[in-house]
Design goal:
The complex is a heterodimer of chains A (608) and B (373).
Chain A (H helix, E strand, L loop, with lengths): L9 E7 L3 E10 L2 E11 L9 H16 L22 E6 L5 E7 L5 H11 L2 E8 L6 H10 L4 E4 L9 H13 L11 E5 L6 H7 L5 E5 L13 H18 L3 H7 L5 E2 H16 L3 E6 L4 E7 L2 E7 L8 H8 L1 H5 L8 H13 L8 H25 L33 E5 L1 H4 L4 H12 L3 E8 L4 H10 L1 H12 E9 L9 E9 L3 E6 L3 E4 L6 E8 L13 E6 L4 E5 L11 H14 L4 H9 L1
Chain B lengths: L1 E2 L7 E12 L5 E2 L6 E2 L4 E7 L3 E5 H5 L6 H4 L7 E2 L4 E4 L10 E3 L4 E6 L5 E5 L3 E6 L4 E7 L3 E12 L2 E3 L2 E8 L21 E3 L3 E2 L1 H9 L4 E7 L1 H8 L16 E8 L6 H9 L4 E5 L12 E5 L15 E2 L4 E4 L8 E6 L5 E2 L5 E2 L1 E6 L4 E5 L3 E3 L3
Parallel strand pairs in B: 16-17, 17-19, 18-19, 19-20
Antiparallel strand pairs in B: 1-23, 2-14, 3-5, 4-13, 5-12, 6-11, 7-10, 8-9, 10-11, 13-14, 14-22, 15-20, 16-21, 21-22, 24-25, 24-30, 25-28, 26-27, 28-29
């Protein structure tokens, strides 16, 4: 369908999440696109409704009421085009309802083609249920058993470089056919399988998978050479299959697909798209995080390379118990500056898990949840760093100069020193009573180094803007800059370790705010610097510390303020906390006080 | 009228309970519409294709993949027993033949001339589906399964472990707020569904298991005890497949929390009756809670009217499900419409609750669940 971008003045976008459907209205105001209203309603994919469009209509109706604009027709469909103050010109949607897109991927070598296949699936917005490879240490019959147990929406097979050996990838296909995996939606549907491996093996793979219950699609090899990834064709095919099979079989989606003016995208895929667009446009490195009840998604764009990971069991409600189990309770409690009874806490965590919609009422409860969030984010980012690597298996050409720096392939490309912008979204970060708390959860968990801008997605509209960027990049970009991000401020942090109280770096700030000082090792300070204020900071690190220019080398950065301000972090990297519980509590108490983490809210409670 | 975010769990003295019993793949259904079945009756059975064992025959015989098919002593579709020769090389001048004996019993499924891989499929695996509740078969899906229906008392728990089981109800405590300890368990409870009051201790669960109790149900349990019993920290709430020899169901939550008096009274009223119990819990999209079903004699009393549940109204009884008032019972005293700043600093819609102690407290609406008394 051709869309006349010139005549688009009113855009309606929905994101159908697992629990809530969120609708936003974007209008052209004085020649600029702005997000104006938002509404939400429970998602209606599950019984008794079993029709996603009911939730969409409800959320859109709420937006319409707020905007005094009739956006739906009497039959619940979207009113188009915009005319006489009613309707909209463009309607788009994303979806992660019903568990999103769930995939199984297979590749010959876990660290090479299987990793590339996983990257393709994650980049397309899927949840990867399992990765099967020839060297995953499971015996073939165990792999078959696993394939049988899973009920993926689709399977992606890769393996071998073009022109290389065909045997291993054909073997892989031969495992899948007898396993007869059942698709998630309805056993009568064909199981979509995408083959994106060695092109020379495609005939044999097709022969192995010639079954009436398989719908096989062959696309270009996603790893045509060891040193080259070609994820685009596989990602596009995943998206097509998502629309043709998964969406078409999900309740009410056929109707929704008719309503939208562009293809429905999986929510995380859309978030990835908008982050890539922004990183490319501004020439920056970005990390984005979305922490939900069940999962945590981490997105990164470093030197234009995009990566996404989903930590399936790290979240703040359904998965809170798993965060505590994985991180261990002592690691969670190190962020809490008072004593708590561990036996009682364990019960609280489980009660949150079994009744996931409850919210913290007391300050103590909030502080504990934010401690869990730090650990969930830390673990999710650790998994992301381990996954976002340079291509493994690529031979490195070494020179004499490399003798003392044995760089191997497969190193993480996530470099906190190069990180320019860290974006937060998801309940515990977005709805924290104070933005200082959001900023500190980010800094403690992600440990940014050098100079990093911190921001949060105001109302989680990145999915909407992601799909909009595919249709109307200008509108998406304008709304992203003006309405999507709330800048929290900038964090200045030095890499290295020293002795508590000894100088870490000296700094001098000029511009809208003038200040200077010395940050000693272990210090954490907050400098007031408002959202409209900018400045230049010059830092001189002590020996053993690095702020981006090298060990002990002076560095200058442009900084911007925000709702929180300028964070001067002299705690060193990697961030270490005292192992002694009493000492740790004292340290955290000091940081809490310096960052004014709970001050404002205590006042708010008193005056309410 | 406002919506309660967390509607209470279903507890009813009589309802029509239907359960669909399906085979994972097509098979044989052993019952017909109108049959009366007991809980342990096998209503449908089938055979799942056996496990698959790939053998890299080209490597095993040290021959090129294309030669494998000609060296196979059993062709595709043929059965073979463990230890029987499966393939044999031609040898040199008819001598020094290399014989490969099958490591498994089963059928030769495929022989690949590309990879030299042979796939053996093991013997079929029998799958049986039981009725789960005693009742009447009201529908049969040929080759797939059936639907069993009965009038039943129904109690939904909040969390459980272990799968389907059944037994006669045995009350082990005097009151709903009594802790269930090992001393409350005895040998004569073998095969029973034992009901406690408040928290059950890990010693009580271990004693129940030792005595062969089918299922143990109580108001609460400590997470530490759950960990001690399972032997690991339960991270994700997807349960039901644990093989601990007993099904455990918690009706209210974690910690020292009394069983709701209505639930406890219901169990007491049906002491000695047979109950079907499933501990399977899944707290994700498509939430699944553990359940206790007590089949009743048909038509003995009228079905209990459907409770409207889910709406907060003045005077309605409720329970607080989050600290600092976790587990406390009260009634809705007021429903202010404006958001309120909580002790945590967050703004949320709240309600005023008059606790049973007479004290009035403000609680977020998300932190209560309606109960029936």
């Amino acid at each position: 369908m051709t869309i006349d971008l010139e005549n688009i003045n009113v855009i309606l976008a929905t994101d159908c999440g697992s629990t809530t459907t969120k609708a936003i209205l974007i209008e052209k105001v004085d020649g600029t696109y702005r997000q104006t209203y938002r509404g939400e309603a429970p998602t209606t994919v599950e019984k008794p409704f079993a029709n996603v469009t009911i939730g969409v209509t409800n959320s859109v109706t709420e937006v319409g009421e707020l905007a005094s604009r009739q956006l739906t027709n009497e039959d619940g469909t979207i009113k188009q085009p915009a005319k006489d103050g009613d309707g909209c010109d463009l309607y788009i949607s994303t979806s992660s309802a019903g568990g999103g897109l769930q995939m199984m991927v297979a590749g010959v070598i876990a660290e090479m083609t299987a990793a590339s296949a996983k990257r393709a699936a994650l980049g397309a917005g899927a949840i990867v249920m399992d990765v099967i490879s020839s060297n995953d240490k499971r015996r073939p019959h165990e792999q078959i058993q696993r394939i049988r147990e899973l009920r993926p929406d689709m399977i992606l097979i890769s393996g071998g470089t073009d022109g290389g050996t065909t045997e291993k990838v054909v073997q892989l296909a031969e495992l899948i056919a007898p396993a007869k995996p059942q698709p998630r939606f309805g056993s009568e549907y064909e199981m979509p399988i995408i083959y994106a491996g060695n092109k020379d093996a495609s005939d044999e793979v097709q022969k192995s998978l010639e079954e009436d219950w398989i719908d096989l699609a062959v696309v270009e090899n996603l790893r045509p050479k060891l040193e080259q990834e070609n994820l685009g064709p596989a990602r596009d095919k995943i998206h097509d299959v998502f629309l043709e099979h998964v969406m078409a079989h999900a309740p009410g989606y056929n109707m929704l697909m008719d309503w939208t003016d562009a293809d429905i995208m999986p929510t995380p895929g859309a978030v990835g798209d908008i982050l890539q667009t922004i990183a490319k446009k501004d020439g920056i490195n970005v990390v984005g995080v979305d922490i939900g009840g069940a999962t945590t998604d981490v997105f990164s764009v470093f030197d234009e390379t995009f990566n996404r990971t989903v930590s399936a069991n790290l979240g703040m409600s359904y998965s809170i118990s798993n965060v505590c189990a994985e991180a261990t309770m002592p690691n969670v409690l190190r962020w809490v500056h008072f004593d708590m009874d561990e036996r009682q806490l364990r019960n609280r965590v489980k009660n949150k898990m079994i009744r996931p919609t409850t919210i913290p009422q007391s300050l103590e409860s909030l502080i504990f949840e934010q401690a869990v969030a730090r650990e969930a984010l830390r673990l999710a980012y650790k998994q992301h760093k381990e996954f976002a690597t340079t291509l493994k298996g690529v031979q490195q050409q070494r020179t004499v100069g490399d003798t003392f720096s044995q760089q191997s392939s497969g190193n993480t490309i996530v470099d906190n020193m190069k990180l320019n912008l860290l974006v937060a979204s998801g309940g515990v970060l977005s709805h924290a009573p104070s933005m200082n708390q959001t900023a500190m959860m980010l800094v403690d968990a992600f440990e940014p180094e050098g100079c990093t801008n911190l921001a949060k997605d105001s109302i989680f509209m990145m999915p909407h803007l992601g799909v909009l960027s595919a249709v109307h990049p200008e509108a998406a970009s304008q709304v992203f800059e003006r309405d999507c991000l709330i800048y929290l401020g900038t964090c200045i942090a030095a890499k290295g370790a020293g002795r508590i109280g000894k100088p870490c770096f000296t700094w001098s700030l000029t511009g809208d705010v003038t200040a200077s000082g010395t940050s000693n090792f272990g210090d954490l300070d907050l400098i007031a610097m408002g959202p409209e204020q900018t400045g230049t900071i010059t830092c001189e690190p002590a020996k053993g510390f690095d702020l981006g220019a090298g060990n002990g080398k002076k560095v200058t950065h442009e900084v911007r303020g925000g709702t929180v301000g300028l964070i001067i972090d002299g705690r060193g990297r990697p961030l270490g906390l005292p192992t002694d519980r009493q000492e740790c509590q004292q340290t955290i108490s000091q940081w809490v006080e310096n960052m004014k983490l709970y001050e404002e809210m205590e006042q708010a409670v008193c005056t309410a | 009228m406002a919506h309660a975010y967390t509607p209470g769990l279903k507890v009813t003295s009589r309802m029509t309970y239907k359960v669909i019993r399906m085979l994972p793949i097509k098979g044989e259904v052993n019952v017909k519409v109108g049959d009366t079945v007991e809980a342990d009756k096998i209503v449908a059975a089938t055979y799942m294709p056996g496990d698959v064992y790939p053998l890299n025959m080209a490597n095993l015989l040290a021959v090129p993949p294309k030669d494998v098919a000609s060296l196979m002593l059993h062709k595709e579709g043929e059965k073979i027993e463990e230890g029987e020769p499966l393939a044999q090389t031609a040898g040199i001048f008819g001598k020094f033949k290399k014989i490969y004996k099958s490591p498994y019993s089963g059928t030769v499924e495929t022989i690949s001339d590309v990879t030299g891989q042979v796939i053996l499929r093991g013997p079929d695996i029998p799958v049986e589906v039981r009725a789960y509740i005693s009742g009447k078969v009201i529908d049969v899906a040929p080759e797939v399964g059936c639907t069993v229906e009965n009038d039943a008392a129904f109690i939904q728990g909040i969390f459980g472990i272990g799968g389907e089981t059944f037994g006669n109800i045995k009350i082990a405590v005097d009151t709903a707020d009594q802790t269930l300890t090992a001393a409350d368990l005895s040998e004569d409870m073998r095969g029973c569904v034992v009901v406690g009051g408040a928290r059950m201790t890990v010693e009580a669960i271990e004693a129940a298991r030792k005595f062969g109790v089918a299922a143990i149900v109580s108001g609460g349990m400590d997470d530490q005890d759950l960990r001690d019993f399972l032997g690991y920290d339960l991270g994700v709430a997807i349960t039901g497949s644990e093989k601990k020899g007993i099904t455990v169901v918690v009706t209210e939550g974690f910690g020292d929390i009394s069983m709701a008096s209505r639930t406890f009274e219901l169990f007491k009223a049906f002491e000695g009756h047979e109950a079907s119990v499933n501990g399977a819990t899944q707290i994700r999209a498509g939430v699944m809670r553990p359940e206790i079903i007590i089949p009743l004699d048909a038509g003995s009393t009228d079905a209990e009217p459907e409770h409207s549940g889910g709406f907060l109204e003045l005077g309605k009884p409720l329970r607080i499900i989050r600290d600092p008032y976790f587990g406390m019972i009260g009634t809705v005293k007021a429903l202010p419409s404006d958001p309120h700043v909580l002790g945590s600093g967050s703004k949320a819609r709240v309600l005023e609750v008059e606790l049973n102690t007479g004290e009035a407290v403000i609680v977020p609406r998300a932190n209560v669940e309606l109960i029936e008394v």
